[in-house]
Amino acid sequence: MLAIAGLALSACGGGGGDRVYDLAANDARSKISGKQSSYKAGDDTRTMRVASSGANGLRVTLPHAGSFESACLITFEEVSESQTRITPDCGGASSATGDTLMAFFEMEVDAHVRKMLTGAPIDGEKMARQQVLLIAANASSIIKEGGQDSELEERAQDAAIRRVENQQEGWGDDAAAADGWGN
């Protein structure tokens, strides 16, 4: 199973080497700040928007990402004067299902960052295949979780509460929709 997860991550460009860009940290940050990126996934358009900027990075949202939290933090680490490692952190959900989804969001943010910095297009079909590989790699944990319905429901409720709180604080989909960028 770990081999499948590694394959999924390497196929999407996740991993240390692929997250290093030939740009100074300030230049990379300015190319992403205040922007958005989109790609087609079947009939849907998947979008990443920069919600805010802080000393520790950029807060981005993935609107229309389902009922899970969809806000991530992008950090910029100076590797050298002319190279920057950019790492997304979408958190964890303390469940195999939620953690798998957060790992996919991180893959997706990686792809959006790569598109914004290099112009490389995002292949929606490839992203879907990577999602399937990631789910397959975590399938046994997800299935085991299914037997713990009450605990899973409690976690889902907690995630929903966090999502509403994030939206009220301007981090969630509502804030992204109200910022004038539309869908």
What is the topology?
Layout: H1 2-12, E1 20-21, H2 25-32, E2 36-41, E3 44-54, E4 57-61, E5 71-80, E6 83-89, H3 96-118, H4 124-137, H5 139-146, H6 149-168, H7 173-178
Antiparallel strand pairs: 1-6, 2-3, 3-4, 4-5, 5-6
Count helical runs: 7
Category by helix and strand content = alpha+beta
Considering DSSP H and I runs of 4 or more, what fraction of the residues is helical?
40-55%
- Choose one word for the global shape: globular
Determine the mean pLDDT: 77
Q: Main β-sheet: number of strands, strand sense, barrel status?
A: 6 strands, antiparallel
The gyration radius over C-alpha positions equals 16 Å
Tell me the fraction of residues in β-strands, as a range: 15-25%
- H and E string: HEHEEEEEHHHHH
Question: Care to describe what's here?
Answer:
- The protein is of the alpha+beta class and about 180 residues long.
- About 50% of the residues lie in helices and about 20% in strands.
- The chain is built from seven helices and six strands; from the N terminus they run αβαβββββααααα.
- The longest helix is centred in the middle third of the chain and has 23 residues, at about 95-120.
- Residues about 1-15 and about 175-183 have low confidence and may be disordered.
